[in-house]
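Data card: per-record layout.
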Amino acid sequence: MDYTASQSGFRQRKLQPNMRLRNSSVDGSDGSQLFEDTSGTGYSNPPAGPQAAGFPAQSILSDPMSNLAMAYGSSLASQGREMVDKNLDRFIPISKLKYYFAVDTVYVGKKLGLLVFPYMHENWEVSYQQDTPVAPRFDVNAPDLYIPTMGFITYVLVAGLALGTQNRFSPELLGVQASSALVWLIMEVLAVLLSLYLVTVNTDLTTIDLLAFSGYKYVGMIVGVVAGLMFGKPAYYLSLLWCCAAIFVFMIRTLRLKLLSEAAAEGRLVRGARNQLRMYLTMSIAAAQPIFMYWLTYHLIR
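The structure for this 302-residue chain is written out next.
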């Protein structure tokens, strides 16, 4: 018993220095290195990643099943994109909208001059290139959406300015002004589409074309309101009267090439009940523009 106890005590005393050395090397409180670092020459950690597990990255790419799955997935993605584009283009023709915004500074200047003074313009036909109408920047007769869009925004801003000069401005009233103008524009386009359907007119006019032609009246509305703010109510009535007559002539000369027959477009006598209805429809669309121009601006000048 004594021998065993002495032997165990000897082992404990022998292990205590090793434990102290191991603890001191782990703590490193004094910052001194007790043993030489041999990690670079001895044991090294195995590389991590798919190669260590026996799955090289190149084997995945070279697998025929993986290539087939990737090709099938890309084909499904392309089919889904084409389906989304087709259904979206059915309601919102995004590809066609690019044509109506293909304008430049020269076109905008000429178009604004044509809207304010259309009496000296002779050729009203839209130019074509291989059965496709040229972009608006190459033909002043082509309809666009840039001027109607900017005209609507400018009209809302000018209306806010007019309300502010009369101490009647409020965000709610400006919102009502903008929403009412937009609603009247949509109702006008829908009424024209319904009339074309009832009269059974075969024309190349699209909904976007009607939206563009109906939006040109904002130019005359802006001129009238600005003139009224600067020079008073008589200037408003005079400028608005001029712009109403200009937009009436512009719409007549533009839409007659779209709605009337070829004989009417050339200035010959219009015959037949259907051609008479087309002529009345053209006159009605042109006459509606001055009415909307006065209705949306008369309350802004006091």
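Known properties of this structure: Residues 1-35, 37-44, 48-55, 262-269 have pLDDT under 50 and may be disordered. Residues 78 and 183 are 38 Å apart (CA to CA).

See the next section for split statistics.
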